[in-house]
Amino acid sequence: MSVGSLLRRLRRRFSIALMLCGALGLNAAAQETSSQAISASDEQGLTPIELLGKRIFEDKTLSRPAGVACASCHQAQQAYQGNNGSSIAAFARGAAPNTLGKRNTPTVMYASFSPPFSFVEERDVKTGHREMIPIGGQFFDGRAATLTEQVKGPLFDPNEMNAASKKDVVAAIRSGPYAELLRHVFGAHIFNNDNDAFLKISQAVAAFESSSRFHPFSSKFDDYLQGKDELTPQELEGFKLFKDPKKGNCLSCHVGNETSHNPQDWLFTDYTYDALGGPKYQQARSASKPDLGLCAQPGLAKKIPFQMRLESFCGAFKVPTLRNIAKTAPYLHNGVFSNLRDVVAFYATRDTQPARWFPRNSRGLIEKFNDLPRSLRRNVNISEAPYDRRLNQSPRLSEAEIDAITAFLATLTDREKH
Ligand code: HEC
Ligand code: HEC
After folding, report:
1. What integer pLDDT is reported at residue 17 of this predicted model?
2. Ligand 1 mean position, distance from CA 105 (Å)
3. Does any ligand 1 atom lie closer than 6 A to the CB of residue 161?
4. Contact 273, 319 (CB under 8 A)
């Protein structure tokens, strides 16, 4: 079975269980901490463990050479996204000279709601057929199960922070300005064992990333949901199209619970995986080596249910949240789109006007899904609205409708709390 047909069936309305799981994760993190007030204005409202996480998140001495922190690529004022001043917007500059990341930086906002990576059983609402689908985790390929697990990724990635070892990271913190805070939060003996100290450091970062500043739910849309603000007629039209299974059908992957007025039920992702078939980004340095997404997750072969083939997961990437999407250009895992409207237009016309998005090969044929090796292109989802059309059919969304969805997406930007 191709990932297309597999993943098509994954597209079910989101499960309450998943959302609860996210919420419980947060509560657990909150309970680990006591709620002590902190004075400096940027640190207000953080518990001690969250404050510690923030200090680590902003610490530029942990990279090798020093100079790059988590915050260099995940900037607070940019919805915790960024590229550390790289000349190629889609690929962040690393700490070591001439290094660039391999994927577009995602926002860290709302990432704490992603459940740990796993396969879960889903039932097809139409056929009653049950099957196992991949869900959750951190990174576009879910290779870190949780936020705590994720921290070592960028720290030791030679293209990102390039730190040498856990021992070095712990040593830098022990001799740094907030060593005392670490002792305060985790106890006087915290530095006795490097592995243990590193785990606690990772937990503190995860606690910060799970703090309310990473999920303020303060967008115009959130206020609209709760009856505190109104959407313009164009934004409302965009919302309708976003939900309509025959038009945008965006909600089937970027989910929200239509019966709920609770912003937490509107995360705009179900953390499942899908192969969208976005164009190759010609500026990408690694253009020669295709990014296969989920199937290249280390160790995935051991996790997949026995009747499934590893190859069927190639080309699939985690469905990102659309919260703060207007602030987090460029778009897609490879950063191929620099403009939000183009993403929406791509959905509408990928199959009806492929020449608009994909180049022609030497024989003059349009190379659809050219970011994937030819043999894997059949994994791309071609059966689900809005991209279930054929060449020269009319797209599911008109130009004005694309504008309306783009306008709606801009209502998902968090605002300063008033
Ligand atoms: C040089 C830029 C850079 C630095 C520094 C960096 N990141 Fe990232 N971050 C990225 C990129 C690029 C990705 C996506 C990588 C992928 O999916 O393979 C990412 C992904 C993530 C994710 C996953 C989000 C999701 O929705 O899947 C989290 C969480 C995260 N980073 C947190 C951190 C933390 C914590 C640090 C510091 C310890 C950090 N990052 C340092 C660039 C960076
Ligand atoms: C079948 C599932 C599915 C449907 C339906 C879907 N999306 Fe997506 N969307 C994804 C996946 C998966 C990605 C990430 C793809 C990648 O990075 O290669 C994505 C990425 C995006 C992004 C870029 C996010 C970022 O941070 O880079 C935007 C914007 C977006 N979708 C909007 C929409 C809109 C608008 C619709 C409806 C017109 C829609 N999506 C319908 C699965 C879906």
Report:
1. 39
2. 6
3. yes
4. yes
